[in-house]
């Protein structure tokens, strides 16, 4: 089972995402902010990261992860959930994000599709 690190400070949103991701067959660990997420990445191997944080915090996280000397950390796929629809996903991609998408609820099923995509996991391999 693929392990996903979910970084989300809003408890209700975090629980919605956690439920959605777990129901798609993933194992989820969640943190409240990017600093906790960085600590979790240094202690455990994750298949991917989903981050929904303020712009500056997200860019800090991307920079720290991509600059890591630990190959399993520096190459982990990162899916950024954009808070603001006016925010440019290109900025995040250039900073090291693997993919970006709009915030929940628009990201519900799309979140799982993009997660599968960055992990190269066909839908059939996940439990229903």
UniProtKB/TrEMBL annotation:
Domain Response regulatory: 3-118
Gene3D superfamilies tied to this protein: 3.40.50.2300
BP-aspect Gene Ontology terms: phosphorelay signal transduction system
Alphabetically ordered keywords of this record: Phosphoprotein
PANTHER family membership: RESPONSE REGULATORY DOMAIN-CONTAINING PROTEIN, STRESS RESPONSE REGULATOR PROTEIN 1
Protein name from the UniProt record: Response regulatory domain-containing protein
